[in-house]
Amino acid sequence: MAKKIILDCDPGHDDAVAMLLAHANPEIELLGVTTIGGNQTLDKVTHNAQCLATEYGMEGVPIHAGCDRPLLRPVNPAAKEHGESGLDGVVLPEPAPLSEGHAVDFIIDTIMENEPGTVTLVPTGPLTNIAMAVRKEPRIVDRVKEVVLMGGGVHVGNRGPVAEFNIWTDPEAAKIVFNEPWPITMVGLDLTHQALATDEVAKKIADLGGPVADFVLGLFTFFRKAYQDSQGFEFPPVHDPCTVAYLIDPDIVKCVKVPIDVETAPGITNGMTVADFNAPIDETVHTQAAMELDFDGFWSLVVDAIDRVQKSGKGAPAPQR
User: Fold this and answer.
1) Residues paired with residue 298 on neighbouring β-strands, in sequence order
2) CA within 13 Å, CB half, 228
3) Per-residue pLDDT averaged across 199-205, rounded?
4) What's the CATH number where 28 sits?
5) Per the domain annotation, does 320 fall within a domain?
6) Vertex 123 angle, CA 187 and 281, to 5°
7) Distance (Å, rounded) from C-alpha 162 to C-alpha 265?
8) The pTM is what?
9) Which residues fall in a coiled-coil region (predicted)?
């Protein structure tokens, strides 16, 4: 049976690949896409999500806009990595329609309307929408199957010495989410820095041919240069689809059970996800950290998703350049 998910995202080049994988893989039932200000402002990332839905032929998948700012912090987009549009480097098709209603309400209603233990939340941006949903309707915690999020890191940071961007953007929201007792898998930088879009990966995608393959290659071309300039990577890490890959095949992402909390105090540790490997592991520990990626298995899923969308014939036609 396909796993029901809500993808809460801020597209974003890597979010774009997460949307593709969630839509195209038969192991996933994408109940909806919700957007959150993060990689760029809410209006930009929502527009991007709508255009990606057209690009991939995501018929019938609702898209809801969410919170436009962190709970307490100012908006601070990642323009160095994603550009002024949030998806620089590609030509976007016309946007699909935006659904009425706030993302937080959609998240709550969808969880409450489905059987308990059947809906997984997959946040790949700041955790503001998820935290707001918990505060508005605490009963969702017992009904959610699990939360599989992209954010944080055990040993690695990319905003300051120890904080990852999504957690750093809204650490207060992250602390709320991590301290609820639902099962959480943190797919952080320790794992996602292994998901590099290498030349070999690009060749496999190029060998497919077709408009979606070209689109993804365009994403990677911009993302590669941006990561070289901003963080010194030779190849860009494609963070967000690692969450979806874990749900498709847990063997692709090896995890370690460990208590995790979030630092919200000002200073050099602000936004740090603190994994306590000295703590005893018992039934009260509801968090785990992703640590090891099956590189070939992961990219096989992405290549397969591109191929499936193209063969379906439902995606946007290739743009005139």
Assistant:
1) none
2) 10
3) 98
4) 3.90.245.10
5) no
6) 45
7) 13
8) 0.97
9) none
